[in-house]
Amino acid sequence: MSGKKITISDIANALGISKTTVSRAISGKGRIGSGTKDKVMDYVEKNNYEPNMTAKALAGQRHSGKQRTYNLAVVWPDDYSAMEIPFFQKLIVGIAEIAANYGYDIMLTMAADDNITGLKRIVENHKVDGAILTRTLVDDVPAVYLKERGVPFVVVGSTNYQDVLWIDNDNYDACVELVEFLLGKGLKRLALIGGSKNHIITRTRFKAFRDAHEKLGLKIDEGAVYLDIENTSKLDDAIKDILNKDVDGIVCMDDGFVGEVLTKCAEAGVRIPEDIKIASFYDSTFLENSRPPVTALRFNDRNLGAVTASSLIRSIEGEKVSGQMLKNHEIMIRKSTETE
Amino acid sequence: MSGKKITISDIANALGISKTTVSRAISGKGRIGSGTKDKVMDYVEKNNYEPNMTAKALAGQRHSGKQRTYNLAVVWPDDYSAMEIPFFQKLIVGIAEIAANYGYDIMLTMAADDNITGLKRIVENHKVDGAILTRTLVDDVPAVYLKERGVPFVVVGSTNYQDVLWIDNDNYDACVELVEFLLGKGLKRLALIGGSKNHIITRTRFKAFRDAHEKLGLKIDEGAVYLDIENTSKLDDAIKDILNKDVDGIVCMDDGFVGEVLTKCAEAGVRIPEDIKIASFYDSTFLENSRPPVTALRFNDRNLGAVTASSLIRSIEGEKVSGQMLKNHEIMIRKSTETE
DNA sequence: TTGTAGGCGTTATCAG
DNA sequence: CTGATAACGCCTACAA
């Protein structure tokens, strides 16, 4: 248990060879005898040597001309509602895990829709090599800034901007599937509750909702679509409206809406699932344990984070990578949509 | 608009002085003639020189102690259960907000109980000026490491270690209050469900649970105390046990346990609050919206983060600061503990 | 296949 | 008040 940091010089001395050889053994570059290489790797393992990224970056500066920090920025939305969503938390765990494998560390910063001073400070002080935007916007100030500035970045979610690297779950397909599932149960009048239309995800989900109807030759009831629901009072109004409307199902775009819906239904004496079915486009433990448990789409957010991080890093290191859609959803069918 | 970065050597050459002098002019350290200093600063302005943080960090590595990165490390627990808890997310929002005010940025890293390689990498590469540990452990590997290493740090929560700066909510007082509230309603046989005994918070809560009983001249039923509940199957076993035991109330240490408890009670035909009352030592929107809503302790986590950050920064900047207990809890009384 | 030497940009030490 | 110089840990021509 050495509290001390071990360097390639230490290794070189211990093994009676030169720093160069050690460097080569570790980086894998240059010709080197497999015997010596094994010896070095062995020592590295036993004394758990960790390369000093700062020195690496400084040395690399000469040849690449570029300043490297081995840090990635992760940008979180700053609105209150996002704080309740475990999505961002899971995402960052996936990001951090992969980043660590590549020797990168994570800088976290918040950004409100138009306030990106935190991101700016980090970028302009050269504290990061690239950035991950964890939410895409229709009018995406952070993305525009990073692009202008020439900073490599990836967005999590789909985007309308050109030449922006993105990684997304197949939200569209998943939502279509879930709505088809509901319609297949014979439901005919579905209400929809969702958040800000400035979030791309809201538009994607809405489109999926509509398309699923059309696919089955049905039409949605525009009057039962409630978007831009961003606080409790708007939500309460929407729910009250819905309950007066003779719908047979309520689809929530996020798990955050569901609690209030369940509460209000119970207060109004509306039984779930007998009178109205409920489903959510995003799952959480809350929906799993609510009474009744609520049908929802589950994605692998941690994996999404992992893929995002590796894409960004590869892109930073000069590789040509392109956007991709991850297929990894699952419909968690629960009591809230049961038919007898 | 030269696309090239300019270094202190460039400045030195251009001005016909030495690198040392330039360095001094820029850092403000050491004696220097105001005339030369002005010349340098002038040149710096005109050619917008930007210091190379990487080189700074590397150089600082030797005379370790003085270099400033204006970064703080925030260490998150890496276990699966923590990912579901909004506490850490709220905490970091508070931290980031205050840090930004002081010009600091946040580096986020995960640490399992004994695996602190991420933290080590950050510290040994001199990427941060200090650290915040968001969970305290009985056997606290990260804290010991930082202390040995001489890195300023603050822990969120109480700790058994000496000379460690800590900031905590008044969990003990709050828990005592809640239990007294329950006992005051005439409940006599309370069960308790909690997580790992290696977490200080678990011990604190348990002690409060016991002390509240003693204060009223009552004794707890040791057989109805279930700790180290760390996965669903253990939880299910515990609940089954409890329901066979003729208790009149169940106290959960965290909101995460409550969902399962409600579900199992419903399945067993046990009515809340008529047959059994339920309360939680930690609140969340889940408890607010569950059926029935569950009585719980609410803390201001964001504020806790803010105070933590400002304590750390002041400590980094040489001020003498000491641990403190924040008084900011509230008992959210809800239907799950109603008496008719 | 391996070693030597010099440099990446900055700061601190020690002379002038 | 200022200037050489030696580190910080790593990388890579260029030699051997």
Summarize the structure.
The longest helix of chain A is centred in the first third of the chain and has 16 residues, at 86-101. Chain A has three domains: 8-59, Orthogonal Bundle (434 Repressor (Amino-terminal Domain)), CATH 1.10.260; 71-169 and 301-328, Response regulator (Rossmann fold, 3-Layer(aba) Sandwich), CATH 3.40.50; 171-299 and 331-337, Rossmann fold (3-Layer(aba) Sandwich), CATH 3.40.50.2300.
Secondary-structure map with pairings?
Two copies of one chain form a homodimer.
Chain A: H1 8-15, H2 19-27, H3 34-46, H4 53-64, E1 71-77, H5 86-101, E2 105-111, H6 117-124, E3 130-133, H7 141-149, E4 153-156, E5 165-169, H8 171-184, E6 190-193, H9 200-215, E7 225-226, H10 232-243, E8 249-252, H11 255-267, E9 277-280, H12 285-289, E10 295-299, H13 301-316, E11 324-326, E12 329-332
Parallel strand pairs in A: 1-2, 1-3, 3-4, 4-5, 5-11, 6-7, 6-8, 8-9, 9-10
Antiparallel strand pairs in A: 10-12
Helix pairs in contact in A: 1-2, 2-3, 5-13, 8-9, 10-11
Chain B binds a DNA duplex (16 and 16 nucleotides) through residues 7-9, 17-21, 23-24, 27, 29-33, 36, 51-52, 54-63, 66-67, 126.
Please tell me about this protein's structure.
With 340 residues, chain A is α/β, with parallel strands linked by helices. The first copy, chain A, folds into three domains: 8-59, lambda repressor-like DNA-binding domains (434 Repressor (Amino-terminal Domain)); 71-169 and 301-328, Response regulator (Rossmann fold), CATH 3.40.50.2300; 171-299 and 331-337, Response regulator (Rossmann fold, 3-Layer(aba) Sandwich). The first copy, chain A, is 44% helix and 16% strand. Chain A has 13 helices and twelve strands. The first copy, chain A, has helices at residues 8-15, 19-27, 34-46, 53-64, 86-101, 117-124, 141-149, 171-184, 200-215, 232-243, 255-267, 285-289, 301-316; strands at 71-77, 105-111, 130-133, 153-156, 165-169, 190-193, 225-226, 249-252, 277-280, 295-299, 324-326, 329-332. In chain A, the strands form two sheets. A six-stranded parallel sheet of chain A has the order 2-1-3-4-5-11, sandwiched between helices. Chain A has a six-stranded mixed sheet with strand order 7-6-8-9-10-12, with helices on both faces. In chain A, helix 11 (255-267) links the parallel strand 8 (249-252) and strand 9 (277-280). The interface between A and B is large, with 55 and 57 residues. Chain B binds a DNA duplex (16 and 16 nucleotides) through residues 7-9, 17-21, 23-24, 27, 29-33, 36, 51-52, 54-63, 66-67, 126.
